[in-house]
Amino acid sequence: MNDKIKVVTDASFEANVVNSSQVVLVDFWAEWCGSCKALMSVLDEIADEYDGKVIITKINIDENDQTLLKYGIHGIPTMLLFSDGVVQATKMGALSKAELSTFIDANI
């Protein structure tokens, strides 16, 4: 995993995502999820491309059920884009780099 991708937990979510002064993309994922694993290489590239503009984070749903429930996540991978502590946009499913870039660009 790219060292620019930050792993967050229920305990660190508010500090690292909600209270962030930057736009934050949160990837809700699980170890057993094939689509989540396929998305990882896309997120690695996006983390490099958007470095300084968007913080890329990942949260494991199997280990962090409070955040999962709070944001009503029902399927994975699901990505939430936060700005000023508020969810600005949601995208579900494995995306290509072009699709994810378009999603981010349309919402920042």
Automatic annotation (TrEMBL):
Disulfide bonds: 33-36
CC per GO annotation: cytosol
Active-site positions on this chain: 33 (nucleophile), 36 (nucleophile)
Originating species: Ruthia magnifica subsp. Calyptogena magnifica
UniProt keyword annotations, A-Z: Disulfide bond, Electron transport, Redox-active center, Transport
One GO MF term: protein-disulfide reductase activity
Positions bearing the site annotation: Deprotonates C-terminal active site Cys: 27
Protein name: Thioredoxin
Site (Contributes to redox potential value): 34-35
GO biological process: cell redox homeostasis
Family: Belongs to the thioredoxin family.
Domain spans labelled Thioredoxin: 1-108
Pfam families hit by this protein: Thioredoxin (PF00085)
